Amino acid sequence: MWGLTTNINEQVIKMGLKAMFQKNIVLGNELLTAIGNQLRVVSYRKYTDKKGILPDGITFTLQILHDNTKYELDKDGNMPHDMVYETFEATVLTGSHSVDVEKGDIIALTGFREDVSFYINYSYILRFDGYKKLVLKQGVTGNAPTGKETTR
Fold it and tell me: Which residue among 51, 55, 83, 126 sits deepest, i.e. has the most Cβ atoms within 10 Å of its Cβ?
């Protein structure tokens, strides 16, 4: 009995150390390339770092409009669903709470911050330096941006 308890405690300690010294790298630029970096603004809110280390900014909830990922068939031979119309959050660290976009606008994220982005508990925490407001051609649903771009 004592040996079993000791082994369990050793396993818990090893798992704790493994988790403590583990790091996941988020491939933010690859993600933006795969989804075409044209995202619809669903909502936004002010962001202030609780520890006061990161600059203020805006956290956007964004909808994916394109998915260029080359998916493989699953084990049953079915094609998995793409990410089109899925949503995710991204924080833009502009140093300000002001925003010049509205719900429904299309933006492109710029300046991925790998140093302060991470993946934890099945959620991405994605941070960027800026965004561009895109104006698409009339009648075009998500092709290359044209016309005026506003950069933050």
Answer: 126
Q: Look up residue 80 and give its DSSP letter.
A: P
Cα(113)–Cα(92) distance, integer angstroms? 9
Cα 27 to Cα 13: distance, rounded to the nearest angstrom: 30
Q: What CATH number is associated with residue 49?
A: 2.40.50
The three-state secondary structure class of 53 is: coil
Write down the pLDDT at residue 121: 82
**For the chain, what is the domain count?**
1
- Name the nearest CA neighbour of 126 among 61, 38, 52: 61
Give the chain's residues under pLDDT 70: 1-23, 138-152
What letter represents residue 14's amino acid? K
Read off the pLDDT of residues 57-68 as tens digits, 9 standing for 90 and up: 999 999 999 998
6 in any annotated domain: no
